[in-house]
Design brief:
There is one protein chain. It contains five helices and four strands, in the order βαβααβαβα. It has helices at residues 14-31, 44-51, 61-74, 89-99, 115-125; strands at residues 2-7, 36-41, 77-82, 105-110. The strands form two sheets. The chain has a two-stranded antiparallel ribbon with strand order 1-4. A two-stranded parallel sheet has the order 2-3. Helix 1 (14-31) packs parallel to helix 3 (61-74) and helix 2 crosses helix 3 (61-74). The two termini are 21 Å apart.
Amino acid sequence: MDGGAGSIIRVFDVFQAEALAALHAVQRAAQLGMSRIILETDAANLGKALTTKELDRSANGSLFRQIRDLLINDFSFYMISVCPRTCNKVADKLAVYGANIVLPGSYEFLSQAPDFVSDLVSGDKHGDGV
């Protein structure tokens, strides 16, 4: 298990921040030697940007192409899944945590997730919907 949160500085908008977070996640999965991944997002526009070429000429187009290239070249299987925000509570809590980090940078949680994440995952496993 690996997760992280952080503060991304110098981003143009929320869409770019979502894309950069996806890029960091894909890079980390590749570093860990994973060969099959499912990238989940609650941002429908990011899902569209990563599954089509429709937004390749946008301001973030090179970022979308970079993520797709990583997925194609570094993984034997990948899937982009867009899910409702209500199904993405762990990512939402990590984003809030990252946004509240005062200094730029990131934190990784290796093998031991913070309590606020463990509680959400545990609730999801039991169908409690924390």
